[in-house]
Design goal:
binds adenosine-5'-triphosphate; binds magnesium ion; alpha/beta; disordered C terminus; about 15% strand; 9 helices
Length: about 240
């Protein structure tokens, strides 16, 4: 039995973004019935994976598709704070490390047809946790119960997690920040997904024409891509 959470998702007033999400949803539906477990990833942090993952999952749910959103970015969860969750929740890291049962990490949301598994507290060994049989079992279980399983992941160039998750997915969507990464990095993203054996469904070019490229194009804030720790814990630094 699932428990309820309220995600305070203020309605977007960005018509272009909403239309783009609808197009993405339509394109995913046209990938066919075999493509139901889908991850979103990118080369580097901040390209928009979590925003697009949430909007896509909500959009699929709104059209009546029973959808499970899994936040598999155990290094940096944004969903709890970004959507002002109304209660404390258990999450994936606790389930994968055997601390809690699957039932206690599964939450129904205030969006009809949308269930959610949060990432849970920061764990020092996310890659090892994701390689456990528990993650495969979770995906298998979810596939039997949901029309779509949409998975948020960390950037693939920084940590191995997304490549591990890709092995369990039917397809991957690459999120690319317009003007934010080089052609070479985008190619590397594609290559890494291909190596994991996951089918690449396509790419989303995000933050187009919004004046982001000047700032991010210089990689000013994320100059080093060798490590990715996310926001928690603050004591962990490069
Ligand atoms: N299309 C967009 N237009 C405007 N702002 C956006 C868009 N997409 C994402 N953002 C903003 O960019 C920031 C990063 O987005 P998000 O957290 O979704 O990226 P991410 O790829 O999941 O990051 P991380 O790799 O750190 O997990 C957020 O502040 C988000 O609101
Ligand atoms: Mg994210």
């Amino acid at each position: 039995m699932t428990q309820d959470v309220v995600l305070n998702n203020h309605l977007s007033d960005d018509f272009a973004f909403d239309e783009a999400i609808k197009t993405l949803r339509t394109n995913i539906r046209f990938c066919g019935n075999n493509i139901r477990t889908i991850m979103l990833t990118s080369s580097t942090p901040n390209e928009g994976k979590s925003s697009i993952t949430f909007s896509l999952a909500s959009s699929l749910a709104e059209t009546g598709q029973k959808t499970l959103l899994i936040d598999a970015d155990i290094r940096k969860s944004v969903f709890v704070s970004r959507y002002h969750l109304n209660k404390d929740v258990h999450g994936l890291s606790q389930y994968l490390s055997g601390q809690v049962s699957l039932n206690s990490v599964l939450y129904s949301t205030n969006t009809e047809n949308l269930d959610m598994i949060f990432s849970g507290p920061y764990s020092p060994n996310p890659a090892e946790l994701l390689e456990e049989a528990g993650f495969q079992d979770l995906i298998k279980w979810a596939k039997e119960r949901y029309d779509y399983v949409i998975i948020d992941t960390p950037p693939i160039n920084n940590v191995i997690d997304a490549a591990i998750i890709a092995k369990e997915c039917d397809g991957a969507v690459m999120v690319i920040e317009s003007g934010g990464i080089s052609y070479r990095m985008a190619q590397r993203l594609k290559l890494q997904l291909e190596k994991s054996g996951c089918r690449i469904l396509g790419a989303v070019l995000n933050k187009v024409g919004r004046g982001y490229s000047g700032y991010y194009g210089k990689y000013g804030r994320y100059g080093k891509y060798d490590k990715y720790y996310g926001e928690k814990p603050e004591s962990v630094n490069d």
